[in-house]
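dumping the sequnces here before i forget
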Amino acid sequence: MKNKVVIITGGAMGLGYAAADVLASQKAKLVLVDYNADALAEAEEKLKKTYEGLEVLSVTADVSKEDQVKAYVDQTVDKFGRIDGFYNNAGIEGRQASMIDYDMDVFKKVIDINLMGVYYGLRYILPIMKEQGYGRIVNVASVGGIRGVLNQSPYVASKHAVSGMTKNAALEYGQYGILTNAIAPGAILTPMVAEAFKQVNPEDPKAAEKEYASRNPTRSLGDPQDVGKLVAYLLSADNGYVSGQTIAIDGGESNMY
Ligand code: NAD
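..and the predicted 3d for all of it:
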């Protein structure tokens, strides 16, 4: 990934930050996008300390706001002149509630960020990659983009949509040298998943974590760095022919019933 320009949304923590760390170790030029300005500044500082000479542009933006998406894309092109890779990762889980009890405002927020945010990114980045005749995109779905997950209806709907949109981007833009895939992580221990365990068992989130891990074929949760390495491969020119796929990284969980 040396000198490749990669935009990472939700880059301040969790899976976005882990991929930034892997890509920085491979000498990519990074654009970190996040709506949490403090976490973003911390992430940039930590990466620069670890990887001497690293080029990073941090942009505070909410991916569910179309004008802010256009702004992070414009700033990337102004600074680096091109976009080789796009990790379309920012997303939220929402609250856990049954379908008929789900809070409508939270439902709409999950769709705005997880679906519209992913679409806006594609809408503004695909034309640039098309012009270049080259691009690699990884959208973030979930195991919840492959099957249902109890009490997470908007999340599951949005992640199935991401998987579907990935197929369309692959079909429509493959002819321009752009390969688009989605990843479907299972339970990877990030701040988002730690929060979900707090909701499941507010008294003892560690017990919820253990119980969840015990149901995975590997009896463990995933490591964000492992996801980062898969993403780095899919965003690289080493990936010459994988496109339109939703690739599970879940210890085999999505094969269970
Ligand atoms: P996280 O909460 O740990 O980190 C997400 C980051 O995205 C945060 O820095 C947050 O500030 C940022 N973000 C959220 N909404 C944003 C917005 N509207 N605009 C800009 N930035 C925003 O979450 P994570 O676990 O790293 O999840 C990252 C992605 O992976 C999400 O799309 C999530 O649905 C997906 N995912 C995660 C897991 C998992 O096990 N961790 C499993 C399946 C899918």
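The radius of gyration is 17 Å.
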